[in-house]
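Milestone M4 deliverable, item 7.
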Amino acid sequence: MLVGLFRVLCAPAAFAEECGVVPANPDRIMPEPQNPDQAFDLSEKGYLFYDRGDFHCAAYFNLRAYQAQSDPVLLQNVAATLKEGKQYDAALRYAAKTLTLNPDEQGIELANQIIAEMNGILSGDDYVQFPLTDYNATAMTIDFIRYERGDLPRVRKGKLSVVIERQGKSPSMETIEVPKPVVIEPPPVAASSSDWRMTAGIVAGGTGVALLGVTIGLDLSASSKRDDYDGLRACLEGPTPCEDGRTVGDYNTLGSEIETLTSIETVTLICGGVLTVAGVALIVWQLVDSKGEVEDEEPGLSLMVAPNANLDGSEVLLRWTF
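Output delivered:
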């Protein structure tokens, strides 16, 4: 008898640390290997907590018992315990789930009774739907009942203590006002050099400068060939054959090479100029935004390119405004 009394008095305290969170939606319950003996022990723990008035832990152990033995009676015990703990929305869901498990006539009657009672309570003016609107939250726990994103539990108006779970962060306890909408703003993101405009500006500007360097090299090569071209023309127009033996065919080939180099030079000059200007514009845009000095008008870029290519060289006109 003393052993039994010790069990009744001390078991709830021993099990208190084992209590977990009850999912708000019974469809999210993960199945476990069936073990009737374990289900019986867990159900007894649930009864002990129920007798103490600790309905949260009672619901948790009744749920564990149902996981160990898929008996609709055990799931109905969860619904009844949640009702006593004033978790009306969750109690409604668990009672409705019980009806899908082919309970006996008494089980059907009790489940329908809980459903009717919960619907009556939740339709009152004291209860409102409570959406989870935290930008980064994945779940919210209210009195040991865990609601996933997308759930719409009904809770009593007034102040409410909840645990918000966010990705990559530890759950945190917060006090909120119901039915005031719960919108937890994400922390402001400080402007940094990792802004996409800065990165894109550096890449575009660097590529543009590289192309302008290629343009200079091409221009030097074309200039050298133009000098050779002019010298060969003077030689061919003279009274005697050229000393190096080159002919009119060599003269025409050299002219074609100059035209090719000039065309490539024009393309690299235009592309390099455009990319350099665009890169500078993106970097300036990001720097201005980071200092909070952006004017109402959106930053823009107006660019005019006018190329002119011939045997004597190439030109490009760039004009831009911010």
